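Quick entry between incubations.
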Amino acid sequence: MDELVWDDTEKLEAYLKEIVSTLSQTPDGAGGVRYRYRNVWNIDTLREVREEITKSFSELGYEVRSVPFQPPLDIVANRYRSSVLPISWLRFQVPRCRKKSSLSAPITIPGRP
Amino acid sequence: MKGDNDLEKQRGRIPDNCVDPQQDSRWNTPGANDNGSGVAALLALAHAFKKRKFQRTLRLVAWVNEEFPFYANTFAADKRHQRYHASGMGSYHHALHCATGSDNSGIQENIVGVITLDTMGCYPGDGYIYPGKSLRDLFMKWILRMPETGDFVGFLSDAPSKTFMRNFAGHFSRESEIDTFCFSAPRILNVLLKNGAWSDDWSYWQFGYPGFIVTDMAYLRSPQYHRNDDTVEHIDFPEFAKVVWRLRESVEALAEKQI
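Done. Structure below.
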C-alpha cells in the first residue's frame, strides 16, 4: 500500500480512512470494535498509539526522535475535583489517600498510656 | 506519567518548517476527527515526502497533550500561570527546545513557520450552517465573520503570523476547487480572550515563531466536536483527501522556498 497512497485521491482517501480508523478504534476481540480514548487519563492507550505512529515513520525511513518530558501532575489532578473520577486516576490517587489518612489517625500501642 | 513528542525530520538546509498535529484526543472521545484526521494527514504527507530532499528542512511532528487540561488552561489570567499549564503540552516543549537550541547551545533555531493540522475531516457542503452550541460559538462566528457554508478549509493565525499564513493559503487556494477562509486574530482579541489560538500554534507564538492552524473550523462546524460520537463514520473522506492532496502541494512549495 505504501507506494500507492498518492496514486490518486481515491487511494489517498482509503489510506486516510485506514489511519483514522486505527487511531480511533481497535478490535474488541469479539468481532466488534472498541473506541480508543487517547489522552492523559488513558495513558496506556496514548502510549500505544504513539508507538504505532513512531513505527509508521520508521518504516517510511524517517529519522525519528522522541522528546520526553514530565507534565505537571497537579494540573491533571485538578481536573477531577469537579468531575468524574476515572479508573486510571483512582489508581494513582488511592495510595496517597491511604497515606494521608494513616498519618492523621492517632497511633496507639496496646498496653501503653 | 511522561509525555513524548515524536519528531521526524526530512533533511535539507535550514531554516526549518514544521508540520504538526496533536496525537491525543479529548477525554472520553474517540477523537476520529479531533485529531485522528490531523495525524492521518501527517502520515500521508510522510509518504509523499519520504524520498524527497528539499531546500528547507521539513519537520513532521506529532504532539501529545494538546487537549484539556493543558491547552484550555492557557487561558489563565497571567503569563506565569499560562506557562505553568502549557508546560504540560508537547508543542510548548518543542517550541522551547527550538528557542533555546536543540543541543542546549542557546542559539535559537530559525523556523520559518509552523503549520498545525487540527480537526480536518468535516465538510458537510454548501448551504450547511451549524448553529453552534453555546454563546461562545455565536460570539466566535460573529468575530470571525466566517462564510455561511460548510465546504471551506480554515486558516487561522495571530497577527504576527498573518503574512506567513496568507502566503501559504494563497498558494493552497490557487487553481484549486477548495474554498479557503483566512483569519488573523488582531492583538486586541488575544487580550480580550486571553488566548486567540485554537491549537498548538499558540506554543510557537510564545517564542516568536509564526504559525497557523489548518482546520475544518472544529466546534463552529461539527456537531460531533469533543463528543463521544466523534467517530470515523462522521468524516467526509472524499473531501478530506482533496484537502490533503492540495496541502501536500503547498507544503512542498514552502519547503522548496516557493512560498
